[in-house]
Design goal:
The protein is α+β, with helices and mostly antiparallel strands and 280 residues long. It is 22% helix and 42% strand. It is built from five helices and 13 strands. The chain has helices at 15-40, 46-58, 132-135, 144-153, 185-194; strands at 69-78, 84-93, 97-104, 107-114, 117-121, 127-129, 157-167, 170-179, 197-202, 208-216, 224-237, 240-250, 253-265. Strands 6-5-4-3-2-1-13-12-11-10-9-8-7 form a 13-stranded antiparallel sheet, sandwiched between helices. Strand 12 and strand 13 form a beta hairpin. The protein is globular, with a radius of gyration of 18 Å.
Amino acid sequence: MRGVTIVPSEPSQSVLGLRLAFVLALGLVSSLLGAQTLASGPVRDASAQQTMSNAVMEMGAAGMGPGSTLTMSGQLPLHGQTSSIFPLTIKARGATDSRAELTTLDGVRTTVIHGGRGMIRKPDGSATFLSPNNTAAFQTPYLPALALQSLANSQSTEIQNLGSTTVDGVALDVVATGLYQGITPGRSEKLADQTRTIFYIQHASGFVARIVRLHYAEGQDGDSQVEDIRYSDYRTVNGVMVPFHQETWSGDQLLFEVNFSTVSFDAAIGDSDFEIASQE
């Protein structure tokens, strides 16, 4: 993808406004990066990389890597016409392998993402495969420090500095990432655009305040919405800063939140936790 600094939406901003801000940011990044990306592969802006590295250090994730494991448990209040609260357990290995078990009234609904593929196992045992648009560049959203660490070290990730902004009196540094991968530069750029993720990092603390990205509708090509994940209640667990409260918004609508009660690192997690059935 090829950025004007976009200001993250406040709850009063409309879905259309948030989408427009996101699209404007994508368009300007495209115009800035297009020519050099074609010539030399993914652009990795040095200042943006430094911002990411500083944030990883401040959040205590510099020593984490693909083999690091994470287990989190808590509750997921779902908002909408009918509000419900469901127990949630997360298992992660590195930033790209994830297993989420949500206990609903019908039973456990399990979402597994591994190797750029994703699947939902429903309580009745049936499986639904997730759109590659949502899984190809997946980085765990539950521990933003680990996601930043993984992206900063990935040579197939495009990294761009989008400047800075201020929200509610808090100064934020803004960086954008996207997966640059494909058999031609054009296809690589298209994937980078589709997987664009924008990180808002507190300038003073280095903590990730929010992540803004596109979430694609499953089974509906081209349909997407802007997803705005907001982090708070950071606590130290084994030297790593973990946001125990997380909210996911779309425009002015709070979709759901997660309140974690326990977080642990380096538990034994086997390959079987991330198995995905063959897609016929």
